[in-house]
């Protein structure tokens, strides 16, 4: 069952929940890839959440008093049904919850009064103020049990001012393994509507990592990543992550995180673990991960040199795979064979030091974000290793007191969303981070699905739907570090996710399709096949391929301006305007915020012959093919087609030009004959065959990536 299905089960039949009254809830914080908000207030405070851990499930409520209030009974019945591992499972409940007990009995559940976790119960209903059975309850969930737990931590935080609520509040020693934390902040009260879909909640801003950073950088004057080891860059996307090392352009190369009851430090090259200039920092990292336990350090066998360094510092160290006896485990990011064990180890209190880069792996593998071994471990923890490299150098340590002005993607993107929605002026340092945010948002939109990631992605999609695209041109360019550039980049990623709304899509499917024929035999390199069709901006085209063409490497492409301008100082057009999609099913839908000519990309060495494709949702584009389109047809009809782009094709060259340039063209045949002579002369000069393996394409563009 997916998280969306779980959510629908939990809120079935419930339109609103009333949090009014004397019981003040606390905000809940969510992390990981299984936790999701069930109810959030208008102020985006999470007040009820759910998650899974191991084989079991958990529902967390932001005040234990809600267990006995009449307005929560319908939800609690849904929650208990969802938590039960089987229909016969016994519900263990405290004897002071008479209302809940009677409600469950009346609904046909078997209920037993207990004072703590007891053998043979399937669901435990408890509060979060005691941790004497925390270890046993975590094991209970892991083995398939269900837990309904309620508490508020704001009062505890007021009486434990020097304590870390996330780590030390009793209930968090249970709930955190599943990615849910009680916080010391009061939540909103009122009668709140239930959302149709999992609600999005912005990044929780009240966690401070200054103490952690102070511990990690004690005695360290700089972070030296100069030398032969080339690091990857990290993307931090979890709410409990924080940068430890940043380049001058805000590329992260060392990061830390809390996950469950444990901690994580990530480095972007394993060579750094043996680098003398980083020794003090790494010893600090081991100390921070160990949390004062003076436990044994487990080190993967590939890091024997690092183990020797630790042993010279009189640290207990063992070369091994991950084992329960160690308090900290050190490994590289090049294997995911123990990913599940690592997740469990960290969630239940262990410390993880992991290092490695992904740029070399990306040369021979696709999908670094989802398939790179290290990311199969780290994505869940809120950090991803990227194929991009970080700039080598010697960088000053981060100021622990400067969190508010230190670049951190989750905090920055949520602030940007808020400011763009409200129309507020972007202020420093946010407005100085826009180029970096544009790059990181593009990466974030490609992360594998999880409830929290998907919810933020959806919020970014809504941002595109609710905003007009910037009107960028040669006369009115956009600066690289501008909100206009950010929105153009985001819009392209929304297209890639197939999230662009086209209100006319369904009605377009009612119109008669256009049938085209494509030559899908291609002895040379990958080749674009022109279709003579144009997809208007913010519209969706639907193409139907024969079954024989599915999964054969064909791609559909919208747009012909393939230069990526992302590195330019200013943009006369959106930096990326081409969108491609593989033909993995007979029916392919593709959208574009910019619009563009429609192509089919035929993979090198394809032998599929001529194929017929049915296309809906497009317009005809002026297309002249020498020898196939006669002058009369061109003058009377073809050159008048509405597309803003036109193509002129002969044997060895294809010209793509604005349609305004060909509206008055009377004799395209003579023009293209001249181009034939030019291409023959080029072939003679190069001493190659007069017929090129595929036609050369010339596309007029307002701006190109290299040159002028």
TrEMBL record:
<dbReference type="InterPro" id="IPR051244">
    <property type="entry name" value="TCAF"/>
</dbReference>
<dbReference type="InterPro" id="IPR031161">
    <property type="entry name" value="Peptidase_M60_dom"/>
</dbReference>
<dbReference type="InterPro" id="IPR029062">
    <property type="entry name" value="Class_I_gatase-like"/>
</dbReference>
<dbReference type="GO" id="GO:0090314">
    <property type="term" value="P:positive regulation of protein targeting to membrane"/>
</dbReference>
<dbReference type="Pfam" id="PF13402">
    <property type="entry name" value="Peptidase_M60"/>
</dbReference>
<dbReference type="Pfam" id="PF17291">
    <property type="entry name" value="M60-like_N"/>
</dbReference>
<feature type="domain" description="Peptidase M60">
    <location>
        <begin position="526"/>
        <end position="708"/>
    </location>
</feature>
<dbReference type="GO" id="GO:0005886">
    <property type="term" value="C:plasma membrane"/>
</dbReference>
<dbReference type="InterPro" id="IPR035423">
    <property type="entry name" value="M60-like_N"/>
</dbReference>
<protein>
    <recommendedName>
        <fullName>Peptidase M60 domain-containing protein</fullName>
    </recommendedName>
</protein>
<comment type="similarity">
    <text>Belongs to the TCAF family.</text>
</comment>
<dbReference type="GO" id="GO:0044325">
    <property type="term" value="F:transmembrane transporter binding"/>
</dbReference>
């Amino acid at each position: 069952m997916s998280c969306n299905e779980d959510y629908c089960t939990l809120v079935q039949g419930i339109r609103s929940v009333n949090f009014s009254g004397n019981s003040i809830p606390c905000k809940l914080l969510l992390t990981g890839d299984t936790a999701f908000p069930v109810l959030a207030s208008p102020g985006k405070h999470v007040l009820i959440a759910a998650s899974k851990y191991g084989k079991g499930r958990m529902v967390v409520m932001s005040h234990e008093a809600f267990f006995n209030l009449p307005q929560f009974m319908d939800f609690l019945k849904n929650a208990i049904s969802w938590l039960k591992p089987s229909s016969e499972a016994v519900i263990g409940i405290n004897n002071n919850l008479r209302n809940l007990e009677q409600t469950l009995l009346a609904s046909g559940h078997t209920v037993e009064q207990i004072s703590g976790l007891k053998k043979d119960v399937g669901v435990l209903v408890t509060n979060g103020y005691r941790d004497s059975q925390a270890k046993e309850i975590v094991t209970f969930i892991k083995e398939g049990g269900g837990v309904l737990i309620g508490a508020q931590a704001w009062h505890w935080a007021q009486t434990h001012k020097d304590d870390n609520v996330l780590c030390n509040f009793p209930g968090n020693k249970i709930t955190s393994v599943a990615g849910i934390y009680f916080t010391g902040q009061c939540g909103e009260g009122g009668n709140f509507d239930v959302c149709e879909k999992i609600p999005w909640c912005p990044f929780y801003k009240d966690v401070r990592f200054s103490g952690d950073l102070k511990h990690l950088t004690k005695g360290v004057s700089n972070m030296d990543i100069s030398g032969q080891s080339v690091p990857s860059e990290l993307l931090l996307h979890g709410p409990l992550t924080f940068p430890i090392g940043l380049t001058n352009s805000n590329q992260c190369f060392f990061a830390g995180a809390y996950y469950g009851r444990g901690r994580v430090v990530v480095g972007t090259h394993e060579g750094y673990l043996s680098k003398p200039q980083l020794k003090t920092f790494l010893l600090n990292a081991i100390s921070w991960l160990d949390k004062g336990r003076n436990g044994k350090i487990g080190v993967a066998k590939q890091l024997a040199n690092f183990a020797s360094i630790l042993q010279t510092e009189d640290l207990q160290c063992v070369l091994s795979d991950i084992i329960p006896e160690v308090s900290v485990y050190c490994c590289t990011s090049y294997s995911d064979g123990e990913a599940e064990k690592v997740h469990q180890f960290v969630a239940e209190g262990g410390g993880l030091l992991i290092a490695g880069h992904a740029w070399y792996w990306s040369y021979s593998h696709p999908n670094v974000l989802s398939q790179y071994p290290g990311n199969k471990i780290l994505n869940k923890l809120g950090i991803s290793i990227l194929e991009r490299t970080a700039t080598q150098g010697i960088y000053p340590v981060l100021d622990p007191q400067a969190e508010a002005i230190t670049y951190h993607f989750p905090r920055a993107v949520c602030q940007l969303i808020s400011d763009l929605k409200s129309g507020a002026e972007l202020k420093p340092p946010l407005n100085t981070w826009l180029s970096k945010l544009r790059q990181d948002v593009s990466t974030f939109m490609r992360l594998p699905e999880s409830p929290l990631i998907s919810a933020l992605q959806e919020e970014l999609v809504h941002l595109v739907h609710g905003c007009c695209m910037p009107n960028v041109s040669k006369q009115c360019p956009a600066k690289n570090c501008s909100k206009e550039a950010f929105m153009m980049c985001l819009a392209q990623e929304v297209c890639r996710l197939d999230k662009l709304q086209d209100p006319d899509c369904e009605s377009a499917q009612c119109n008669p399709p256009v049938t085209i024929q494509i030559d899908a035999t291609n002895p040379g390199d990958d080749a674009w096949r022109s279709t003579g069709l144009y997809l208007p901006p913010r519209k969706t085209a639907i193409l139907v391929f024969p079954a024989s063409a599915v999964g054969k490497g064909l791609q559909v492409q919208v747009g012909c301006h393939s230069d990526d301008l992302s590195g330019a100082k200013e943009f006369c057009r959106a930096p990326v305007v081409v969108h491609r999609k593989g033909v993995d099913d007979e029916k392919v839908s593709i959208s574009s915020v910019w619009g563009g000519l429609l192509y089919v990309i035929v993979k090198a060495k394809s032998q599929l012959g001529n194929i017929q494709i049915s296309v809906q949702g497009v317009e005809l584009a002026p297309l002249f093919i020498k020898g196939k389109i006669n002058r009369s047809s061109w003058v009377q009809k073809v050159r008048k087609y509405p597309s803003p782009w036109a193509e002129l094709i002969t044997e060895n060259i294809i010209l793509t030009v604005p349609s305004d340039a060909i509206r008055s063209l009377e004799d395209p045949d003579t023009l293209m004959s001249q181009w034939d002579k030019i291409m023959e002369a080029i072939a003679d000069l190069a001493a190659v065959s007069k017929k090129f393996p595929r036609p050369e394409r010339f596309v007029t563009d307002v701006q190109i990536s290299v040159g002028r």
